[in-house]
Amino acid sequence: MSILGFPTSSDISEMFGYVTPEDRAKWDSQKEESDKQLDKARNGLTAAGLASKSTAPALGMAEKVISSRMTGAAMEERRNTQAKQTKRTVTTLETEEPVNIDNGMGY
Fold first, then answer.
1. In 3D, which of 91, 92, 72 has the Cα closest to residue 80?
2. Global pTM?
């Protein structure tokens, strides 16, 4: 009996006869293994780990947007494979001083 007359966990297990020392040893080893796995999982939950996990979806979306824009640009470039031609007309106007061909006859 423990303090205040309440039975301990080992007292209870002995009263009902369900827990043997072999069972307790198995449970303890399983609990230790479970605690090790839980500690490994908790170590991954650092501030940097949480930040990387929370930004991963946003980075994935950004990657898809950039990829689709690059694909669209490449398709546009393939469509416009022929060189565009621009025609330009240049007109030059030259003026000369008028020559008076009047020979004095009045025509």
1. 72
2. 0.32
